[in-house]
Write a structure and sequence with these properties.
Blueprint: H1 4-14, E1 16-19, H2 25-40, E2 46-47, E3 55-60, H3 65-75, H4 78-86, E4 91-102, E5 109-112, E6 120-122, E7 125-131, E8 141-143, E9 198-201, E10 207-209, E11 217-227, E12 230-232, H5 247-250, E13 264-266
Antiparallel strand pairs: 1-9, 2-3, 3-4, 4-11, 4-13, 5-10, 6-12, 7-9, 7-11, 8-10
Helix pairs in contact: 2-3
The protein binds 2-oxoglutaric acid.
2-oxoglutaric acid binds near residues 99, 220 and 222.
Length: about 270
Amino acid sequence: MIDWDAARTRFSDDGVVFLPQVLDSAQMAAALEAWRWSLAHPAIGGKVAQANDSTFYQDLYNPRVLEGYRPMLEASPLAEICARLWGTDSVWFMYEQVFLKEGGETRRTPWHQDGSYLPIGGMDTAVAWITFDPVSAEDSLEFVPGSHRGTMYNGSSFALGDDTAPLFKDSEAPRLPDIEADRGAWEIVSWPVTPGDVVVFDVATLHGGAATHIGQRRRTLTLRFFGERAVYAPKANRTSLPNVPGMGERLAPGDPFRDARFLQLWPKASA
Ligand SMILES: O=C(O)CCC(=O)C(=O)O
């Protein structure tokens, strides 16, 4: 049983919370179907640069995502979980991301904040990290607790050999710190994750890690949500979401982050 008051406090204070066994086997099967739909219908998908011939594939921002995801999202407890963590009543689905790592020693996912890449700020954002293959704490996604209340850094370009290389050249956002070079100076948390567990984090929380090794495969789905207190916050080169173009023509910085194209999942529509 999850103590939701404690989980809400943890999410608010740390910007990340581990929720054991909140998805049952049917919900995990539906999530895996959605993950497979993404692999069969790539949007902007591609391989992240690797030092060897292992695979680190990702895809995201599919404008047709609801064709493959809608029933799963509507049946999933994740929207209600977001509402509980935020302590608010409304939850919208923002976009999906799939990862596949296999075929040898894959590179770590460089430390970054999802918010650097997104025109969103304020409160009530959530990334639900779901893995279909168990991972140990050492090979899990890692987080710097409390970092969601600190600096919003430039994005990582995921350049090989330079994890902190800035993605946005015209941005005034500072370069990411080299956390890997000085891990002892940072508080870092991670959890062993088995299928059914979900790690939920704020889009501003620094996270990275989750390599895979020879003989391992990791299939991961991240689902991103926002709520009432999220605001439009354009970043350099990112005035809209690729799957919802033109937001910057309607919204001014600080406006509520809204667009009719986002599916509202909570409160549940009455039948
Ligand atoms: O699963 C991974 O390796 C990376 C996940 C991640 O960075 C994200 O979902 O934002």
